[in-house]
Amino acid sequence: MVKTDQDTIAAISTPVGEGGISIIRVSGDDALPVVQKLFRGKDLAKVATHTINYGHIVDPSNQQEVDEVMVSVMRAPRTYTREDVIEINCHGGLLATNRILQLVLSYGARLADPGEFTQRAFINGRLDLSQAEAVMDLIRAKTDRSMDVALHQLDGDLSRLIRQLRQDILDVLAQVEVNIDYPEYDAVEEMTSQMLREKATMVKERVSGLLKTAQQGKVLRDGLATAIIGRPNVGKSSLLNALLHEDKAIVTNVAGTTRDVIEEYVNVEGVPLKLIDTAGIRHTDDQVEKIGVERSRQAIITADLILLLIDQSRPLSEEDRELITATEQTPRMVILNKTDLPSAIELKDLKTLVNGDPIIQTSILEQSGMQELGQAISHRFFNEGIENRQNQVMVTNARHIGLLKQVESALTEVLSGLDAGLPVDLVQIDMTTAWNLLGEITGDSYQDELLTELFSQFCLGK
Ligand code: GDP
Ligand code: ZN
């Protein structure tokens, strides 16, 4: 059977094995007739659109009941794909879910390719490309804040901005075309390059601004790789537990590519920390900790941020000093722990020793200073007051970042061409390139290959 855009497609659209309810989504012209053959309850052909209907899925071949279900009927065009969409909400676990999917498939739908629902939403004009990518980011979003970023993108904030910039470029290109028709006037040539320069400068500034948000965007999406470092007994495990405990709800264990890599995510004041190398500071086998400095080296190299713990109830040891030196090159915050005990360290001396890096005083035991620690991390990360600019458009997607960098360099070419006094019609080529590249972000000038590649990254069922 040859796959086409016209097929009615189906897939399980909830994470397999997670949660009590699973949803099978069916989209296309035959969505309703297919499900109707399997549904015992109201006549789905007669129910109003956007309603949820109680009933049972029955295997037509033997009249056996498979599951008790709620079926949502959503008729085109106000649906995710802009086609007729039927969603079967079932609760019978993996087995029943799979069985229903098999029935749907044997009665006329075909299994959706990964991302095919979203691809249809795109093809049918419901989402533009950057919105489609936002859906993908949303699936992976790890904290509320990155969820916000993805949602804004879904709203089309980025698309709107990009389209505006394209329009600006188009306006000037059109003007250039008009002016080129009057080559006899030198003044026109002069005016045209002035106009090009202004536009190129303006657009380039906006693009650079967007690229600046990319680093933060990346962290929001992937987490800030954070290592908790310190000699034995300073309170590393206690800190880890305190962080994990305060944020139980969103802690996830993500099995990495190798079997024994475990990453733990924790949301600290809106900054997702990806705690690395936590295996060593779990109290399963303290032998591991004794290896101390050597073990920490790898974590120090990989980390974006180091939380260096020091026990202020004891004088600085040789090992403390070694770790201070070893972490010098990485962004670092010093946690002076055990403030509930008498102090054996002079704060001023330590400040000098750590080159003025922030020092936060805590008693993890008595849970004091934890809020200050959180705020210090957040401040460090969002130090430009991103907090108050939640509506700012952020770029988080690697493909967008790549394209924006190309746009930036095309515009640099435009400007240096003008500086060098190149003829306007040559400069125009680079300006057109920038316009095309921006179009690739929103999919206004897309290629088929790109689409296939992109949508194949989606989870099945989205
Ligand atoms: P690690 O070896 O660096 O992981 O340190 P632990 O977290 O295992 O802590 C070592 C010991 O210090 C434990 O007995 C903790 O209860 C204790 N400890 C941790 N934080 C504090 C603190 O703020 N004050 C006091 N007095 N003890 C603490
Ligand atoms: Zn420990």
Automatic annotation (TrEMBL):
Its EC number is 3.6.-.-. (6S)-5-formyl-5,6,7,8-tetrahydrofolate binds at R25, E87, R126, K462. Mg(2+) binds at S237, T258. Binds 1 potassium ion per subunit. Keywords: Cytoplasm, GTP-binding, Hydrolase, Magnesium, Metal-binding, Nucleotide-binding, Potassium, tRNA processing. It comes from the Bacteria. One of its GO terms (molecular function) is GTPase activity. Belongs to the TRAFAC class TrmE-Era-EngA-EngB-Septin-like GTPase superfamily. TrmE GTPase family. This is tRNA modification GTPase MnmE. It comes from Limosilactobacillus gastricus DSM 16045.
